[in-house]
Design goal:
By secondary structure, this protein is mostly helical. It has a domain at 4-64 and 104-201 and 482-490: Serine Threonine Protein Phosphatase 5, Tetratricopeptide repeat (Alpha Horseshoe). The chain has 17 helices and 8 strands. The chain has a two-stranded antiparallel sheet. A two-stranded antiparallel ribbon has the order 2-6. It has a two-stranded antiparallel ribbon with strand order 4-5. A hairpin with a 7-residue loop joins strand 4 and strand 5 (346-354). Helix 6 (133-158) runs antiparallel to helix 7, helix 9 packs antiparallel against helix 13 and helix 13 (378-393) packs antiparallel against helix 14. Keywords: Cell outer membrane, Membrane, Signal. Residues 24-224 form the SusD-like N-terminal domain. Belongs to the SusD family.
């Protein structure tokens, strides 16, 4: 018998998997959990398995990594455009001294593979439950989308990763090797999304479940990334990306919010500009970023701690063009706020802080944030279309220019007109930086384009060789995170990424 001390932590979970969170759905002889051996037959149980596949979406935004820590901070620190005043060891990321034991490295790996495991079990069980054919196909489409989503993060963060698409039931299968990035896209991510695309999922879903709009948005992102680095699939995949993002723009249902502050109104969750979000509920499952992004110890909030865990660099905020509404007070950022419990005493914060996660009710009254974390919103998809169509067609078309101008118009910037392909691409990249800042997008844009917007020169540098405002220079080693040391130690078939 194989020595179980060599079973990786996450793969052992896949083997001994239980879904205690689904027990509330059980009507038939509940045993306390749903496992690979559970005998279940009702449509309600099928829905419960599908629901379980959503549970690890909170990996994108969860408290982790010590005081002031949240998983969302990792990509922002890595970009060199954020820091944490009191965040434990945050300096290791923006100083590029992190290693395979640094916090977040393991948290992300574990959460994403837990998500994959949930999806694999759900796909297996739902397929065997007798129910209406169309309903079953749509439940499976949700789960296929979620599995693709988890793997999309895994390949962008860690590169080659094990392909695990079945429930692990044999100890001989718990030490898998890494599969090439392209194979993960070709064998899992893209097929899963094409399966979901062929379903009859509703175009929108205001409860947070996967919709066809979400499928198209994710597929547009996947093809845009596949066309770029590291796969470099080519112009045909830019065209596939543009096709999906154009459908999101054309089919209706999603609109740009008139005001940026509409995005921090809990009443707007899963509506308007929001295509797909991670769900949070005040008092039940709070959005952790509201507290973690508060300025440290400034007494503007009712939270017991004001963490200062995620703070934008001054250089990045000052890189916005003159007149840009996004940097006006309490749009994307703020520099002052009334002292808690007063209406006349304003605290000048001494720097810029992120307003995108500022839940006014939570900060001033409840200390429980009801905001969702956004995966895709319309502005993101419009900029995907602009970039992808420009690459696919060799120059910007009228729709692409109009999409960029809609983003600029809301920011109170003058419209652009005809541009060369290269000029337009850099304009789109710039708008992605300025519009989607601190939403988990910039780092992945850096990786797929191998370009970095220099906050000082406002030009685009090559990724390898770019020096951040912290005086640290990106090398090839920063293109991938290390495989967590615990996984390397437990699985002799895993080979560490270069530099770690």
């Amino acid at each position: 018998m194989k020595n179980t001390k060599h079973i990786p932590h996450i793969l052992l979970f896949m083997l001994l998997f239980g879904l205690g969170s689904c027990t509330k759905f059980l009507d038939e002889n509940p045993t306390g959990s749903l496992t690979p051996s559970s005998s279940v037959t009702s449509p309600e149980i099928a829905r419960a398995f599908a629901n379980s596949a959503y549970s690890e979406l909170t990996t994108l935004d969860q408290g982790s990594g010590g005081y002031g820590g949240n998983t969302a901070e990792l990509m922002e620190f890595m970009s060199g455009k954020a820091f944490g005043n009191a965040q434990t060891e945050s300096f290791r990321f923006y100083n590029l001294t992190y290693d395979a034991q640094s916090f977040y490295i393991d948290t992300w790996w574990q959460g994403l593979f837990y998500g994959v495991a949930n999806c694999n079990l759900a796909l297996q069980k739902i397929a065997d439950i007798p129910m209406d054919t169309a309903t079953k196909a749509n439940l499976l489409a949700e789960v296929h989308t979620l599995r693709a989503f988890y793997y999309f993060y895994l390949v962008r963060m860690y590169g080659d990763v094990p392909i695990i698409t079945d429930v692990v039931s044999d100890l001989n299968n718990v030490n898998p090797q890494r599969n090439p990035v392209k194979d993960v896209y070709d064998q899992v991510i893209i097929p899963d999304l094409l399966t979901a695309e062929a379903s009859t999922l509703p175009w929108q879903d205001n409860t947070g479940k996967v919709s066809m709009g979400a499928v198209k948005s994710l597929l547009a992102d996947v093809y845009l990334t596949y066309a770029g680095y590291p796969v470099q699939g080519g112009d045909q995949y830019y065209a596939e990306s543009a096709k999906r993002s154009k459908e999101v723009m054309d089919n209706g249902g999603f609109i740009l919010f008139p005001e940026y502050t509409d995005m921090i109104q809990p009443a707007n969750k899963n509506k308007g500009e929001f295509i797909w979000q991670v769900q949070f509920a005040a008092g039940l499952s709070d959005n952790d970023l509201t507290a973690k992004a508060l300025p440290q110890y400034q007494d503007i909030a009712v939270y017991s701690d004001e963490f200062g865990g995620l703070v934008p660099t001054t250089q990045f905020v000052k890189s916005y063009p003159d007149g840009d509404k996004r940097v006006q007070e309490r749009q994307f950022y703020y520099t002052k706020y009334p002292r808690n419990g007063t209406t006349t005493d304003t605290v000048v914060l001494g720097g810029y802080y992120i307003y995108k996660w500022f839940d006014v009710s939570a900060v001033t009254n409840t200390a429980h944030s009801d905001l969702n974390y956004t995966i895709y919103r319309l502005a993101d998809v419009m900029l995907m279309y602009a970039e992808a169509s420009n690459r696919a067609e060799g120059s910007p078309n009228a729709t692409a220019i109009a999409a960029v101008n809609a983003i600029r118009q809301r920011a109170k910037l003058p419209p652009i007109s005809a541009m060369s392909q290269d000029e337009f691409e850099k304009e789109v990249w710039t708008q992605r930086y300025l519009e989607l800042a601190y939403e988990g997008k910039i780092w992945f844009d850096m990786l797929r384009t191998r370009k970095v917007r220099n906050d000082i020169t406002k030009q685009f540098d090559d990724f390898v060789g770019h020096t951040t405002v912290w005086g640290k220079t990106f090398t090839q080693n920063q293109l991938l995170f290390p495989i967590p040391l615990r996984e390397i130690n437990n699985n002799p078939n895993l080979v560490q990424n270069p530099g770690f």
